[in-house]
Design brief:
The protein has a single domain, classed as Gcn5-related N-acetyltransferase (GNAT) (Aminopeptidase, 3-Layer(aba) Sandwich), CATH 3.40.630. It is globular, with a radius of gyration of 15 Å. It is of the alpha+beta class. The protein has a seven-stranded mixed β-sheet, sandwiched between helices. The protein binds coenzyme A. The site of coenzyme A has 20 residues, from β4, α3 and α4.
Length: 167
Amino acid sequence: MDYAILPIAQEHIDGFHAALDRVARERKYLLYLEAPSLEKTREFILGNIRDRNPQYVAVSGERVIGWCDVVRNPREASRHCGILGIAVVPEHRGQGVGRRLMTTVIDAAWARDFTRIELGVREDNLTAIALYRNLGFAIEGVRRKAIRIDGQYEDVVTMALLKENGA
Ligand SMILES: CC(C)(COP(=O)(O)OP(=O)(O)OC[C@H]1O[C@@H](n2cnc3c(N)ncnc32)[C@H](O)[C@@H]1OP(=O)(O)O)[C@@H](O)C(=O)NCCC(=O)NCCS
């Protein structure tokens, strides 16, 4: 499969929104169950570009097939911390796209003076947890019953990577 990993740009907003909506509607992986509005998504992306938060997309032809971002914590004493989000659309999973997105974004985060990358992952998402572990993320805790979908509770595992422990 031919694809490129690119820093996100305005031209990717619609494609990013469509990909986010697809993965959200799977209901199994994200904290969103559908994408936020296109307007809110545009604000998020333009904010990341303005603030130089690392955000990359995997693009195949004209389509956004995956993304990864690290968003800086705005509080002064935690500005070295960023929250990572990632997903790949279903038909392109298991082909190395997610790992490439992660390593690209992690390198960009260290270059932009982040020294800690945090994330939360739903307890059943064993593929994602394995990928994060392989890249050096450590489990720091569990947010018990932090998710409730259709009346079913799930825990969220919190993980983090410190700059000096990166793979
Ligand atoms: C998690 C996700 C981003 C990984 O991206 P991907 O492109 O599928 O993953 P890759 O092909 O790069 O493989 C990454 C690792 O996962 C492993 N893996 C991939 N598919 C797997 C599967 N079905 N079962 C078990 N392990 C799997 C690979 O062996 C690989 O291991 P590595 O560390 O040796 O490289 C992707 O599966 C996804 O988008 N899932 C749904 C959304 C999601 O869960 N987002 C994260 C929310 S916290």
